[in-house]
Design brief:
Elements lengths: L4 E12 L4 E13 L4 E9 L6 E13 L6 E18 L8 E18 L5 E12 L5 E12 L16 E12 L6 E12 L4 E9 L9 E12 L4 E14 L11 E11 L4 E12 L5 E11 L1
Antiparallel strand pairs: 1-2, 1-8, 2-3, 3-4, 4-5, 5-6, 6-7, 7-8, 9-10, 9-16, 10-11, 11-12, 12-13, 13-14, 14-15, 15-16
């Protein structure tokens, strides 16, 4: 049981002390053990919708834990870095109404986990403190439900060779502009994926982000992924890379049009050739047209 990989989903409440506000919080986390008392985690966190900020992001943390994988309670404390995406209300009655800010923040966490006897399921209570420089700090209290995946090494076990896995996947879903109104539209994508190592994938993705005034953007993204297998059918991964735009919505005078794509995704191998995929993508821009792209699709491996 010492090699168990853990996946946890969270929901709870968040407090912004400086603004005296409360809102919801949510997240999901993957944890990889390093011996009995240490672990690494990658997480996505949504800090809700306070009046002037809609902030979320991805976090990487190092954990010290009292013990694991035994019935009863265990405890842990984590520290790390959080890269955030923040839609900020500029309170302007004319001109630009909001901005998409990005940056790094310290994140500190404590957790208490209850492991059920003879079960891989567990419940968890976690408190996060996020402290960006020059911005409002937040404190969240979240309850989680998690599952331990045991007995696999974590590499791409369905692959006989590190360069043998290629797939072409057609996807569709919804795009959400990171604005004060969160405008949404139908989107689509075509992804080519290749395994370049037992823990690393490379993708090239053609993206169509819809045809509204806020989302009228098309382009091609290329990403490198860290991939972990939870069993011989399920993979989790996080990818990042540049997004080259062929068509771009107006950036209100900012014409550099640089963009990147950060993605958290899951793949399920229905058989050796057919794979289902679900992904949350964040388009990161320097012209205040960030967007969430929620995609599901079906692919063919060859």
């Amino acid at each position: 049981m010492a090699s168990a990989q853990e996946v946890t989903a969270y929901g709870g409440v968040l407090r912004v002390k400086e603004a005296d506000e409360a809102t919801f919080s949510a997240g999901a986390s993957y944890s990889h053990p390093l011996g009995e008392h240490f672990a690494l985690s990658l997480s996505y966190l949504n800090e809700g919708h306070p009046l002037s900020h809609h902030r979320d992001g991805v976090a990487s943390q190092v954990w010290v834990r009292s013990g694991r994988n035994v019935p009863g309670w265990s405890f842990g404390a984590g520290v790390g870095q959080y890269y955030y995406f923040d839609t900020v209300d500029l309170h302007s009655r004319s001109g630009t109404r909001y901005s998409n800010d990005h940056g790094w923040a310290n994140i500190y966490s404590v957790q208490a986990t209850y492991h059920y006897p003879d079960s891989r399921w567990y419940n968890q209570v976690m408190v996060n403190r996020i402290s960006p420089s020059g911005k409002d700090a937040t404190t969240s209290l979240m309850l989680g439900v998690g599952y331990q995946f045991n007995g696999v090494k974590g590499d791409k076990l369905h692959v006989e060779g590190p360069a043998a896995d290629e797939a072409l996947t057609v996807m569709a879903g919804q795009g959400i502009t990171n604005s004060l109104r969160s405008e949404s539209t139908a989107i689509g994508a075509l992804e080519y994926r290749r395994a370049v190592g037992r823990y690393v994938d490379w993708t090239v993705t053609a993206l169509y982000e819809g045809n509204t005034a806020q989302s009228k953007r098309n382009g091609v993204a290329t990403q490198l992924w860290l991939i972990r297998s939870l069993n011989q059918k399920v993979e989790l991964g996080m990818g990042a890379g540049p997004y080259f735009n062929a068509q771009v919505p107006d950036g209100r005078g900012q014409r550099s049009h640089r963009a990147g794509l950060v993605t958290v995704g899951a793949r399920y191998h229905l058989d050796r050739r057919v794979v289902a995929e679900a992904a949350w993508n964040r388009v990161v821009t320097d012209y205040h047209r960030d967007a969430d792209l929620l995609l599901i699709g079906l692919g063919y491996s060859f």
